[in-house]
Write a structure and sequence with these properties.
By secondary structure, this protein is α/β, with parallel strands linked by helices. The protein contains 9 helices and 10 strands.
């Protein structure tokens, strides 16, 4: 971790769909430069938590603070906040009729009003960084799944966010394409990017995380350093989850 300053704070967050609570009394703090990994069984609320952080889902109680400022008070201009909280999804959501470069330039030129040439140079630097410098004029249909996901990461990074959220970004990829995306995320972590990552890639989680949060049935059940969580989980629910995962991986 580069610094100990708190960047994002979640306090007693509850999220409901109708009468069903999918997140219950969630509190967590992400420090600047920290990599937090969120794990748990399918349907436990991990992705919903990220969407709440990014303002894509309204919350019913609690609050979220970015740089000490409440961003869930109804006055927030989420279009501005999302420039600070970047998010990459399972689906790449690239415009098929636009080239890689054109897809990446939309945000900085339209939302931020940056000069096009400045944005082009920044996009080219980022594409080189993720190994796609030669693909800037390609269309999404000409790319593999792993390449599309790396473009999606660049599209978020070019907005110069303070924190990046990754929601199961390798889930839709063939196994041979997973590594190229995870390598980009590892490189971002080494560079000091603050990240919250939802993943089922446990070996990757163990390698990249500063802290692990285990969520089950909408609650934070356990949190700790990866070397402790993955080798000596404290709760029965975490032990059961890891045992099931190890069994499935061994098949």
């Amino acid at each position: 971790m580069n610094e100990t300053k708190s960047l994002l704070q979640i306090s007693h967050l509850t999220k409901k769909y109708g009468e069903t609570a999918v997140l219950q009394d969630i509190s967590m703090e992400i420090r600047k430069g920290e990599v937090v990994v969120v794990v748990g069984p399918s349907g436990c609320g991990k992705s919903t938590l990220l969407r709440c952080m990014n303002g894509l889902e309204p919350i019913q109680s609690g609050e979220i603070l970015l740089d000490g400022r409440v961003i869930t008070d109804g006055k927030t201009r989420w279009s501005r906040i999302r420039q600070k909280i970047g998010m990459v999804f399972q689906s790449y959501d690239l415009f098929p009729h636009m080239t890689v470069l054109e897809n990446i330039l939309l945000g900085p030129t339209k939302a931020q009003g940056r000069p096009k040439q400045e944005a082009v140079l920044a996009a080219e630097r980022l594409l080189d960084r993720v190994g796609l410098g030669d693909k800037k004029d390609a269309y999404p249909r000409q790319l593999s799944g792993g390449q599309k996901q790396r473009v999606a990461i660049v599209r978020a990074l070019i907005m110069e966010p303070e924190i990046m959220l990754f929601d199961e970004v390798t889930a839709a990829l063939d196994p041979e394409m997973v590594r190229e995306v995870l390598d980009v995320m590892l490189e971002l972590a080494r560079g000091g990017m603050t990240m919250v990552i939802v993943t089922h890639e446990m070996q990757f989680a163990k390698a990249i995380a500063d802290r692990v949060f285990f969520i089950d049935q909408g609650e934070i059940v356990e949190t700790g350093a990866p070397e402790e969580f993955f080798t000596q989980p404290k709760t029965h629910r975490a032990k059961r989850f890891l045992n099931i995962f190890q069994f499935e991986s061994a098949k």
